[in-house]
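Q: I have 463 residues here and want to know how they pack in 3D. Can you give me a structure?
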Amino acid sequence: MKSVAAGVAASHSATAEAGLRILGDGGSAADAAVAAVLACCVGETIFTGLGGGGFATYFEAATGEVTCLDFFVTVPGTDGDHQAGPMIGLDVFFGGVPQVYSIGGASVAVPGVPAGCGEVHRRWGRLPWASVVEPAIELARSGVKVPATHARTLDACAPALARGDGAEVYAPGGRRLGGGDLLFHPGLAEALGGLAEEGPSIFYTGSHARPLVETVRAAGGALGPRDLAGYRVVETPVDHALLGGYRIRARHDLSGTVDTIAGLPADLGRPSRVLGVATALRDQGVQKIGDTTNVSVVDAEGNACVITTTLGLGSGVWLPGLGIHLNSMLGEGELLTEDLAPGRRMSSNMCPLVVIDPSGRLAVAVGSAGASRIRTALVDTLLGVLVDGLDMESAIARPRLHVVGDTAHVEPGYPRDELAMLAGAGWRINEWPDFDHYFGGVTAVGQYGAAGDPRRAGVGLLL
């Protein structure tokens, strides 16, 4: 088996370069992943930010141990002294179909990204915290160019993103940002500077906590000081499944990615596997866009760190003077479950994972954006690399299939013989005219290279 080269894969060149810089400075996979996530919070704010939440999966090469950390959002209201007002409903058109979202202060849940980055660094980092934050500060001072694929997401999500303080950020002078334009957040460099000096606690009990509470409550939300002070990153159980002799290790996500892999057909040859794969992927849930991004990192010692973060659609509520957009998770219908109560951790489709080869070594570190299509993107990429023998770039870039009910959504170029088999078995086929970020955004580093998803301007860089 090949060894995995040290490298970074991300959905923006600036993000990947920030992580690679930290690896080059002697940082661990955790250091580089945190640096890349913070860079995401500057250059990929259409998808994520410091006001969001996420998950991390870490593989320790020396022991083979896999750890999953949950720093997703929690439901506010533990203070008990403030009731949330109504949310603001809006339609977002995606693939020509309107989807209803709710935003505003009442949609804001307790953010976890600062705490999550801090905990990953505390457990597995070796460079000073300020050094890990520095690349993001530099990007925030200069601004970052928007890739064309990100600009297309902005077009769909503009009703929430280009709202309030976001209007001048995403549509300066009334013109929405396009590919190649500069994305700049006034105040974000200062916010990150404070994060570098005070650490993540600045958002929970430090100088940014009170403005955070006051801003959300003024916008109709219920977030309170106790919600912030009581927030904790938690370690979650690690699921596992076998695929072609490889062991998949990840958290149990809302879509059941690991369970889906375990339920794939025994015959994984093409084209015969398509019916079994489609059945395993069957998803009756409501489909949402999901502003999500992922970074995957492997260091020179073979340790891996995969982190997926999200802002939801974005609440339209910004921390004044700090350039930070807050999440809209309480307005994401597919994440709302009957057991939600103040202090409760919300569920998510995000599933950063690692693959261990038969000898016990790391084979792939991978994650994806794409809400309920995360599972689809991950399963197809793993089949491409582990079963079909493709290199990482080819596995990520090839046409995908996503199942909703009895409809198979497919990208251009999907094998015609497999589509015929699906149609013959009663599946409805929806052929999309172009490749689209709807089908996810994978970033991966593994034995067959490092690559990002072209659907989201992804980049893979090796040290």
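Q: Anything worth noting?
A: The chain has a mean pLDDT of 94. The radius of gyration is 21 Å.
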